[in-house]
Amino acid sequence: MDSKGFVRNAWYVAARSADVDQRLMPVRLLDEAIVLFRGAKGEAIALEDACPHRKLPLSRGNLKGSTVECGYHGLTFDGTGACVAAPTQGDPIPKRARVRSYPVEDRYGFLWIWMGDGPPGEILDIPNFDNPAWGRTKPGALDIDCHYLYVIDNLLDPSHVAWVHVTSFAGAGTDTRPLDIEELDDGVVVSRWIFAEPAPPYYRPMLSFGDNCDRKQHYECRLPSTAINMSVYTGAGAGGPGRPYPDDVFLNISYNFITPVDADRSLYFWFQHRNSDPDNAELSARMFAGATTAFNEDKAVLEAVHLGMKHRRTPYMNLGLDAGAMRFRAKVNKRIAAEASVEA
Ligand code: FES
Ligand SMILES: [Fe+2]
What we know:
The protein is an alpha+beta fold. It folds into two domains: 104 residues, Rieske [2Fe-2S] iron-sulphur domain (Rieske Iron-sulfur Protein), CATH 2.102.10; 205 residues, Naphthalene 1,2-dioxygenase Alpha Subunit, Chain A, domain 1 (Alpha-Beta Complex). It is built from four helices and 19 strands. Strands 12, 13, 14, 15, 16, 17, 18 and 19 form an eight-stranded antiparallel sheet that branches. A four-stranded antiparallel sheet has the order 2-3-4-9, with no helix packed on it. It is elongated and about 80 Å long. The relative contact order is 0.15. It binds FE2/S2 (inorganic) cluster and fe (ii) ion. The site of fe (ii) ion has 6 residues, from helix 3.
């Protein structure tokens, strides 16, 4: 169950793009202190938040154009982490005056940061992001005081909705129907179909299939900590494994990007993406509010789980519903071990 350390060679969401501006914003990600800001042209910059002289956080200094000046003795760094001024030293600038700079990218309303030492890979592809027929909520952000893998466990667990999300995602069959598990190269999918039952409260106003419908819960997690939770609804009798979706299928995909702060805290970024009503701002606002309520229900449970597990005095046990999460944790541990062996 325990997983020590983090996958480092990965893109993580550091913040919502709109939350990063021409102010110095300190964040802790994967237990590293980082300062985020935008330069004079709006370009996003992420630097190690520690001056190489006495390690004063640069976020306590001054932003000057696209450079940041240390608030202790004025060492000044550009967006690449190079020192461009050392006022107390004169010329030349000391060679060791340099901070780490992290690759960053604005995409999907979020600011992504590459935390690895290797060359950056690809950011997750989100199909239909630019498809004008799809609608979406604004990006959400939440702080959760728990280890990030408890959030991932939760996002690979379609059963908890029956107890945690009674007024939103719960519905007949979310407690007892069997789960399918599929392994991907870089992830795990836990899913199930629930046939001919009423839709849960969150989705009912969006559907026009009559009293009952077929529903698929598709809970997918990809390394290091991205969860793609898709809800599929069809008319009763039209859904089922291996069958193509009918034209009137309703899809809502909750994209969840979890970024570890440290072993006890996580950042949770998300948005919801649906294949209908692209311009319905009222619906987007309602979905944003509904999902925010539900994710706060998760937050309350997960923070208590984290403390319960951390301070446990008696053994814990697993249930059948944990099988997908256990396989995902095994993949995380393998990736962390592989990164450690390359470094060693
Ligand atoms: S601590 Fe930054 S210049 Fe001295
Ligand atoms: Fe949940």
